[in-house]
Write a structure and sequence with these properties.
alpha/beta; 17% strand
Amino acid sequence: MDYRRPVAFGLFVTPSAAALDNCFALAALADGKVEFLGVQDHPYQQAFVDTFTLIGALLDRTEEVRVFPDVANLPLRPPAVMAQAAATLDLLSEGRFELGLGAGAFWPAIAAMGGPERSPGEAAGALREAVEVIRLMWSGERSVRFRGEHYRLDGVHPGPRPAHDIGVWLGVGGPKLLRFLGGNADGWAPSNSFFPPATLPERHAAIDDGARAAGRDPASIRRVYNIFGSIDDQPSDEAFHGTVEQWTEQLTGLVVDTGMDTFVFGAENDDYEQCRRFVDEIAPRVRQRVAEVRASG
């Protein structure tokens, strides 16, 4: 399945307080060469700085690359306030912020920080509500109301409006939430550590079912794949490890056979040289190879 979307690339950034210089170096590496920086969001990690604050600094130090939380921790970030923060970052960067959003994980750590400890069903319900709340807060309406099980708006005056239509990309995996995504969100952002390539087609199908039921084109939904591995000089039998040539063929196959369109690469310890090889050696080769395969029919 090839949705024939433009192929895009990015780097995955760890918001480590001890490695901020490396975060900024990766941003400089990405700017003008690949499309995205994804920043993980785990507020309960004592070694991490705040993701949204770091994103502001990354946007301020770059000119072209788009930045998104990968993915934002909903239980610790109320959606109405998160919507305002997202719109603010988008305005300050002239339209270079996107919103990756997750239902939550590591619940004891979330609870230790004062957040709710939700069951899977509660987390899914809260995520659905949050998407609606966020949309309402970006609506430009004079006053909005929403009453759900987890969130409510009582005549709030929403705003500001973002500089562009911010994409809402969900990091989900269950069939019900994937169908919801197809009807209500703009992108899917799984990771290979949780969803290896063999699991992707079934999940694409659920997204597509939800999109068609809502009267949407499945190809309008971005498919972002966070990929963690290593670029080596020797071949490997392990997925997402091996030579540039192996990476090129695997990512090309994930586009033209499996339906992914955006690849965000994470290296062990955010290794700069590994990220440089992805940006300079792999991304351009995959772009070229996908174009060749598509042109050949």
